[in-house]
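Response to reviewer comment R2.3. The reviewers asked that we include at least one raw input/output pair. We reproduce the pair for Beta-xylosidase here without editing.
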Amino acid sequence: MKSILIYSFLVFSALQALAQSNQEIFFADVTIYVEGGKYYLTGSKGGGDGPQGFAFLESKELKTWAVPAKSQDSLGMILTKGDNTFGTKGFWAPQIFKDKGTYYLTYTADEQTVLAESKSLLGPYRQKEVGPIDGSEKNIDSYIFKDTDGKYYLYCVRFDRGNYLYAAEFDMKTGKTRPETLKKCFEQTEPWEATPNYKSAPIMEGPTVIKLKNKYYLFYSANHFENIDYAIGYAVADSPYGPWIKNENNPIIHRSIVGENGSGHGDLFEGIDKQLYYAYHIHNASDKVGPRRTRIVPVVKEWDEKAGVYNFSVKGKEVIVPVMAEK
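Raw output as returned:
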């Protein structure tokens, strides 16, 4: 354990020193969308500066980012509070989803999940009828998954004496879930999901779902985001609803692996180079949570013939620190 902590400190110090000569990116709850040979990054904005909503940054190689050259907004805004959009505060956890020629942005505002759309990737994303997906109860951290049979599912977090992941069938035409299909994914069961460094109710959030060889993989974050042990693991199932079997090697992203505190809540994506990556955020410093910093790490996918599943891990010594391009 001592060697792990020393390694973590050295990695954190090296990354911090590197970042001092560049302008780091402070997006939390990160997602990256890939199209046309370019990467588009968005997330929850830190620091409280600028208009509320979501902005895009663009890159060709994941390291250096800038406001898209074709953006209609100087700040790269793709969705803005009050512009035919639901929400007054707390614009968190966006996800871009393209279906049948339309781009969709699902996000959280006022502790409700929301769906907006645009014919352009760069937005602006707006709503035909301003409102949340399901206003009956608070729910956050939405993720839309389209199965190979054409059905859509919404994964999100609902409050039930803690934050728990739920799945429900989703109707893209109405932008609503089918309430009768709503099902909790799993309980808090593992020690890594509730470490003593920050006491809180159970918290599991930030879902990403993929399907490979008829197996469903649900990536999620656990612990309170202010906990230095905020981390990422995954579970596997034979259906979009589970039952989910958690990976015995969880967490796959943790401060002991990537060298920085509070490593969690992001999204899995395939790069232009066909390499898998996970984008996530970390704490601002060893003694300060926010504004949180953006990170990207290469993911290793290995087929386990005996178990009939893929195993995932990350290259913790190859963490990418995204920075803004020099003007």
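Confidence is low (pLDDT under 50) at residues 1-21. The CA atoms of residues 48 and 291 lie 9 Å apart. Further pairs are available on request from the corresponding author.
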